[in-house]
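USER: Write out one fold?

ASSISTANT:
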Amino acid sequence: MNRAATGDPGPAAQVTQRAQQIEISAEAYAHNLAALRGLLPPGTRAMAVVKANAYGHGARIVTPLALDAGIDYLGVHSLAEFEEIQDLCDKVPVCVLGPTLPSQAAATVAAGVEPTVSSLEVAGALAAAARDAGQRVAIHLKVETGTHRQGILPEEIPDWCAFLGDHREVALRGLHTHFANIEDTPDHSFARRQLARMEAACEAFAAQGVVPEIIHTACSAATIVMGKTHADLARLGIASFGLWPSRETCLSARFTPDQALELQPVLSWRTRIAQIKPLDEGEYVGYGCTFRATRAMRLAVIPVGYYDGYDRRLSGRGHVLIRRRRAPIVGRVCMNMTMIDVSDIRAAGIGDAVTLIGKDDGETVSADSLAALCGTIHYEIIARLGRHIPRVLATPGR
């Protein structure tokens, strides 16, 4: 029987009585990690990147899933991010991918993380802190190859080799770099130039007897489209959450022989209808009176707005899913509320589940589609989801 005909709100109604929640699929995350690791050659390790609150998915809920999947490394942006999950990740090494300040040296050494270093000033502070603590600190040097963010320049390599030779309390765990233009285009010539610069830097270090344990260059896109980047370790970020780094990456993969990579989105975001009211023809909705009804309508209010990460640019443009049907946003997205047209969903009622991102039977609202409406990228859509929103494991099979 057609559930819509019976008034059954469907599987999305399994959302708890919370005003909103973000659901994380352990099944999808494990699938994506396995699929991506399947692209790597034997012996290449994998890092689960859980920076930025695991790309908005919730670092505390994702980290145990990564460990359960047998991941080799974890990647965070900062010492503060590590401290948020410190009690969960004593089984694998953790690399701090973002900058470390000299003032953070002692805490970094005490935490036992492996910081990314790009300045001799920071390296000196870490060396002093390690010496004071009677410990060694393992670092990753980031090499500037063309992105022009963090990174040491080729002409600085002799100074780094001298520093490492003089400071035995500092161990060079890794050399790494990041690609500037591997996911925004199917033309990977710039990435190949960056890779060549990285190889030259590794050779320059080796010529002076400095050989790291790990060389890592591959982000999600590089892991998928350029096998030459895999090296000793691949950093799995956006793709591990079931989102293609870009349309170009997806197309490149589709045209790669013998590759059948399928990614499954990990995150769903749901709320509930808080109020339903009639709206007369000619009446306005929301701030600025940007929407005026051209017919008698039925309006629903949901307790989600731009404070929660639901972008204001979705005003009058986005859709949500209610009872397996699309319902358009009317008027402006407010700080904590958004108004929805449910005129054509007569069974909709207070407390019904509303899908902001995710599936409701055959209908889907994706982070990609929201990003397209907002003129941005799906990274921003998910990374900006409010930390106050509860993250829960989804019911298996949903």
In short: Residues 189-207 form the longest helix (19 residues). The chain has two domains: 9-21+266-393, 26-254. The two ends are 20 Å apart (CA to CA).
